[in-house]
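Input chain follows. Return structure tokens only.
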Amino acid sequence: MKKIFLSTLAASLLCTTGIYAKETAAKDATVKQVNTIAMNNAKEAAKDSRTKLAKEAIESLKYAHNALVALDKKETKSATDNLEKALGKLDVIMAAKDAPKALPVDSVIRVYEYVGTSDSVKVAIKSAKELLNDYRVQEARDLLLPLKSEINVTVASLPLATYPDALKLAAKYTHDNKMDKAKAVLSTALSTFVETTTVIPVPLLNATDLVEAARVAESTDTKRAQMYLEAAQEELKTAHYLGYVSHSSVSYKVLDDLIDKTKHDITAKEIKETFKELQAKLKDFSAKIFSSREKRDDK
């Protein structure tokens, strides 16, 4: 399984406020309510934005499975017919412009939400370090395992580089009456999938929604807007301590300073432009984080 940190889904959820929103926070919403709505919207967006399962891919799998059943029963004609149908569905896919390298056939969403604060993350890490210094690895592991707050979207796909050739080889073996070889090839083909997991950090989702809530609130309730911005800072700090940000702290510091500036200038005439700058920086910050993380994971 390959784990990636940059995808259309992640970029959309993290970098574009409001596109997928099913629900918006009320102007008098608490920070907890804003975060709950952010999480609910993210879950719905992940469901809606799962790579659409290709109908032809599903049907090709069905026919290939039927062929395997027929081979097991030594029904050569039925096996051949189903393999031809399976290949026919693939022909439709391969003939399409910009045919993908893999066809998604299933997806799973898993949510891990850390309920602590940035300070509790620091305490847990410090305690884990002390335990490791005493070689108490398993105890340290128990402290570190809960330190994640993310939505994982795992997509299983058919590899088009190998699946069509496997079907053709199985068809050839069937035609040559080599049933055992045909079954072996087809069984392997039907059990070979590529899994890709997109990781979407929850604290960055929360920070993005809190900044948007602050932007909406600033014209009518400056204190509430400042409260949202302080909460956004806390979410970014949590993301930082949980290791979801770049190793370089420069961009993080710039963003934190800009939120401070926005809080202090909340009543200024230029505040709308300041919010635009803040949201643009947050978008750029997120994009750089995931681009950097993807390169490190690929090594």
